[in-house]
Queue: 2 jobs
Job 1
Amino acid sequence: MIVVCDKLLTKGEGCMSNDNYWEDEDDNQDLGYQGEDDGIKNLRKAKRANEKYIKELEAQLGTYIAKDYERTVNEVLKSKGVNTKAARLILNDLDEVNEETVNNWLLTNGDLIGFQPKEEQQTNNDADIQALKKQDNATHAASAPSFSDDIELKLANATTEEEVLSILNGL
C-alpha cells in the first residue's frame, strides 16, 4: 500500500492517511497491463523455438560434414586403387578426415583391407646397369677437368725455363 501525503512535513511530523492511497494490484488491473507471467511465458516459448531450430541446423551440419568426410575418403581410396567399401572402416577410426589423415591410416592399417603401399620400383634394368658401369669405368680413369685446366694455366703463365721444368716435374 502506498500512502500519499498532501501537506508539507516538518521535522518529526508524520503523514496521516487521508484515504489517498492506491494499491499496486489495482494499478495493473485498471490500466490493462500485461502481467509478468505472460511475458516470461512468451520468452520461454521463443527460447524453446530457437533451441529447436538450432538442433535442426546442427543435425543438417552433421549430415553435410559426414557426406564430405565420406566423399574425401572415397576419392583417396579410388586414387590408391582400394575398394571403396573400406571407407566405413576408415570413417569409424578417424575423428577428422582429410587426404593426409586417410593416407596415414592406409599406411598404418592398410594391411587390414589388403592395401599394400606401392614401393618405388627400381626402373634400372640390366641394360641400364651395364651402361652405367661402362660410363663409370670411362670416367674413373680420366683426370678431372679442373686439374688439367690448372696445369695449362700454370704453363701459360710460366716465364722462365726453370718454372716450366718445375711444373712438369711436379706432375
Job 2
Amino acid sequence: AELIERGNEILASFDSDPSDYTVIVEGLDLIAYMTAEAYLSIKQALDLQFGDTVPVYYLHPDGQSLIAVKQDAAGINYKYRFTKDTDGNWALQAEPSTVVGETLYRQEFLVEAGLVDPAKLEDLEK
C-alpha cells in the first residue's frame, strides 16, 4: 500500500488522477496485459538508476495506454507514457515528463534504514 500511495502522489504531481487507472505495483503483473518482451522494453525505457524509487504503473481502462512513474535520487518525479499499437506492441510516447517532487522519498528511506542521521540531511540541503 505504501508503494501505491507513493506512486499516486508522484502521478498527482503531474495533475493526473490515479483513480482513472488500474494501479499495478508489481512490474511482473504487467505480463497479464502484455508480452514479457514488451514488459522488458518498458522496464528498459524507465532507465532505472541507483536511488530511483520502485516504479508504479497505471493502466488506462481501455488497455491501450500505460503510465509509469518513479522518482530519482534528487527528488525529480518522472512520468512515462506508453501506448499500444494495433500489432500489440508498446512504445514510449516522447520523453518522460518531469517535475520536482514535494516529498523526497529516497531521503525518507535512508533515514528509516538508519543510514543517514536526519540532522545531516538538513546540512546536505543547504
